[in-house]
Design a protein that fits this description.
heterodimer, A: alpha+beta, 15-stranded antiparallel β-sheet, three-stranded antiparallel β-sheet, 16 helices, 21% strand, globular, disordered C terminus, B: mainly alpha, 62% helix, elongated
Chain lengths: 613, 158
Amino acid sequence: MEQPSLRDYAVIGDCRSAALISRFGSIDWLCWPRFDSGSFFAAILDPERGGFWRIAPAEAFRSQRRYLPESNVLETTLKTAQGTIRIVDAMSIASEEDESKLLFPEHEIVRFVECSRGELEVETVFEPRPGYATKRVRLCERGKLGFWVDLQSKCLILRSDARLEIRGDRVLGRQRLRAGDALRFSLSFNSNAPAELRPLEQVTLAIDRTVAWWRSWIGKAKYDGPNRDAVLRSALLLRLLHYGPSGAIVAAPTTSLPERIGGDLNWDYRYCWLRDASFTVRAMFELGYAEEAAGFVGWLLHATRLTRPEVRVLYDVFGNAPRAERTLPHLSGYAGSRPVRVGNAAQAQLQLDVYGEVVEAAVQFIRAGGSFDAETAALLREIGLYVCRHWRDPDHGIWESRSAPVPHTHSRLLCWVALQGLLELEWRGHLRRKAPIELFQRTRDEIRREVTTSSWNDRLQSYVEVPGTDQVDASLLALAQYGFEPASSPRMRSTFDCILRSLRADHWLVHRNRELAIQGDGAFAICSFWLVHYLAIGGGTLREAKEAFEAMLAFANDVGLFAEEIDPPTGNPLGNFPQGFTHLGLINAALSLQRREQGALPPQRGGVSQIST
Amino acid sequence: MRYDSWFIWGFAATVVLTTIMAGSQSLGLTRMNIPYLLGTMFTANRDRAKVIGIGIHLLIGWLFAFLYAAVFHAWGGAGWWRGGMIGFVHAAFLLVVGLPALPGIHPRMASEQHGPTAKRQLEPPGPLALHYGVRTPLSVVVAHVAYGAILGGFYPLH
C-alpha cells in the first residue's frame, strides 16, 4: 500500500502519550509510556520496518472519518462494495473518581469494530516493533489472557474476541463480519506486574468513559466566537499534548516528519519548547482553563529553576534536558526523508527570545490573579539581570538556525518584553525584594533605541530579521503582537507589506524567512495565524482578518488538524503532525478576532503603558 | 526467643528484600511489584494500593522473621548460610506453590482459565511467576536468600 499523506492521519491520546491512525485503519505511530518514549509502531517513518496495527476490510475500500463530537475519540468508516465497517479508536482515559475505584491498564488503546452494512472480510495485522524497531519481538499467546509482547521491564498485551494467531513476529486475523457483528480489541501497556487486563465486554464502556472525559473537559471552554468547532478542536489537541503528570505541553507527538519531502529537515518535536509560552498561557486563561494554565506556568518555572538563570530552549516533560540528538539509520524516514532523528540538538542553542516568553507567561499568570513564592520572584529577578547582560549577544534565533549565531531583531524584542514584563511585575508588587528597577528601565529603553534604529531598514521601509541586513522574516509580526509597535503604525504597516511581498507563498500562506522560501520549504502555518492576529489587532480590517482566518482553516485536514507547515502547491501538511503551536496560533487568532468582533481591539502583549518612563 | 532482635533484624531484612525486588524492577529484570500485588487485595486505587502493600509487606516480613527465628532455635544454630538456605527454600516455595495459587486468594486477580472479568482484572503470575518476566524467579531467589542471610547472620540465639 502506498504511504499515506500526512493529511490522512488523525491523533488519539491520553495526555501522556499519543498514537497516529491513518484513514486506512492503521495505527502507524505509537510511543509508550511517554510522548518521547521509544515507539512500538513507527510505520509512518518506515512502512517496512517500523511496525503498525491495521484493522481494515480485506478488499478495496473507501474511508470517511470524524472525531466523535467534542472528543479525541476517532470514528473511521470503511466502505467496500459489499459492506461497511465502523472502527472507533480511543486511548482510554478515566475520571479521577473512576481511577480511585477501578483498575485500569497504565496505557490502553481500545478499538471497537462494527459491521453496519452487508457482509465483508476484516483483516487484522498486528506488527509491534518496539524501541523504534530495534528490539527483538517475543510474541507469546497466553490463552484467555491474550497475546503478549514481553520486554522484561514492560509488556504489551493484545486482547480481542477476533480469531487471531501468531505468525512469526506478527499477530494476524481474518474474519467475516455480517451487519450487526462486532469485534473488540484492547492493546495495553504495563510496566508493573501484575498488569491490568481489560475484560473485552468493557471495551465499549472504556470508549464511553473516554468520550465523557473529553466532553466534560471541553464543556468548560468559554469560547463563543467565530469558527467555534475549529477552536475547540485545537483546544482538544492542546489538551491531548498537555502531559498530565507535570503540566508540560509537547510541541507535537511525532519525530522526523519532514519539512520538505525527501529533505533532511527532520526534527524530534516530542519536547516542550518555551517559545510561545505566553501565548499558551493567554489562550488557556481566555478559554477558561485556569487550572491547566497554572499547571503550565508551574512546570515552566520549575523547569527554568533547574538551569537558572539561564533558560534552555526546550525541555522534556519533567523539565530535564532531552536526550542527545541521534539518528536512526535503519529507518527509511517518511517518504524516504532521512535521517530520522530522536532527541533534539536545539537544546544546546542560545535563543534569547525564550527569556521574554518565560517572563511574559509569568505576567499573564499574575494578571489572571496568580501569585509567586519568594524563590520564583528571585528567579525572575535573576532572569532580568541575565537579559541586561546578554541582550546584545548573537544567538540562533526563533527559527533555530544551525549556522553561526547572529543578532536577531526578534530575540532583542523579546528581551525588551522580558524587561517590560519585569517592570510590570514590580509595579504590581510581585518581585518582592528590591529589584534593580533602574537597570531594567535603562536597558529596556536601550533595547528599544537599538531595535528602532539598527533593525529598521530605510530602503525597504521595514524592520529586518537581522540588524543591518535587508531580509525580513515572519517573526517581525511579533513587534505588534507584543506591543512594541502599534499594529496600525506606519512602520508596522509597511513591515507587514514587506513581509507579504518577500515571504508570501500563496494567498495567505507565508514562509518563515527568505532563505527557507528559496530552498523550497513549506509555508509555516503559525506565521499565517500571526498574520490574522496582526490584522485583528489593528493592522487591517475585521473583514480582512476573517477572510485570512477562514482561508487558513481550509488547510486543515478532514478532522481539523494542522501540521507545522503547509506545502503551498498542494496544500498538504509538512513537518511534525499534528503541531501544537499551529493550533495555538489558531486559538489566539480566533480570540483576537472575537474581541475585534465585539468592538474592542484585542490587548497587545508586552506590559502596560503605565510603566513607560 | 529474642524479641528485640527479631523486631530489628526482621525489619532490616524485609527492607533489604523489598529494595532488591524494587531495584530489580527498576533495572528491568522483572515487572513484579510486590507492594502493588499485595495492596490490590484491599483497594483498586493504584497509588493507595502501593502504600498499603508496603505496610502489608513489612508485616509479612516480620511474621516470616519469627518463623525463621523459630527454625534457627529448633536447628540449634543460626548463621548467614543457614539463613540463606532457609531463604532459598522460602523463595522456591513461593515460586512453585505460593504465587501460582494467588488467583485463588487475590480478589482482583484473573485466572488463566477464565481470563479477566469485571472484578478480576489483574494478570496472574503463572508458573514460577514467569508471566512477570523471565528473570523474576532469579530476583525472588536473590531477594529471599539475602533476607534469610541477614536474619541468620544477625539474629543471636542466646
